[in-house]
Design a protein that fits this description.
mainly alpha
Length: about 170
């Protein structure tokens, strides 16, 4: 990856994470940890007192900011940034463990289950583990097809890293 491509990617990741931070601050959700890793950034929040609605809003805030920035900058000199922001947002909506889509799906499932938060969370986690593995595998197959057909090895490496994180 060239330095010219790296800066828009880092900016898109940073903006995504800032979206989560802003929503967490707005809704009074404490931050447990913040770290960078090979697939991007990772923020960990304490949702124990947030309720599923606020938790879902914090999960959705990162991709929402990415989609908004993609719309704002799509026809400007920052079109590369806009494209990366869109792709990052779209990927994060996938229901794969560690992605925002999995957190959103977990909130929806838990909210639909009995009011006992602990029991509902256990049941949701079992259900979502299977959904996450299935979505991760389908994402990997799509990435493998793109890599073979269009020589897009970056997406295959990303999908492989995401799939390995599910094991």
């Amino acid at each position: 990856m060239t330095a010219r491509a790296l800066f828009p990617l880092l900016a898109a990741v940073l903006l995504h994470e800032l979206g989560h931070l802003a929503a967490a601050r707005l809704f009074g959700v404490p931050i447990r940890a913040c770290r960078a890793h090979v697939l991007g950034g990772r923020l960990t929040f304490d949702f124990s007192r947030a309720g599923y609605g606020r938790e879902a809003l914090v999960h959705a805030a990162g991709p929402a900011v990415g989609l908004l920035s993609a719309l704002v900058f799509r026809n400007t000199r920052l079109a590369d940034f806009a494209g990366l922001s869109f792709v990052l947002a779209a990927l994060n909506f996938l229901p794969i463990a560690g992605f925002d889509g999995a957190g959103l799906l977990r909130c929806a499932v838990c909210a639909a289950l009995p009011p006992d938060r602990a029991e509902g969370a256990r049941r949701a986690d079992r259900l979502l583990r299977g959904a996450s593995l299935g979505a991760g595998f389908l994402f990997w197959l799509l990435a493998a097809r793109l890599a073979l057909k269009e020589s897009r090895l970056g997406i295959l490496l990303f999908a492989t890293g995401a799939l390995c994180g599910l094991a």
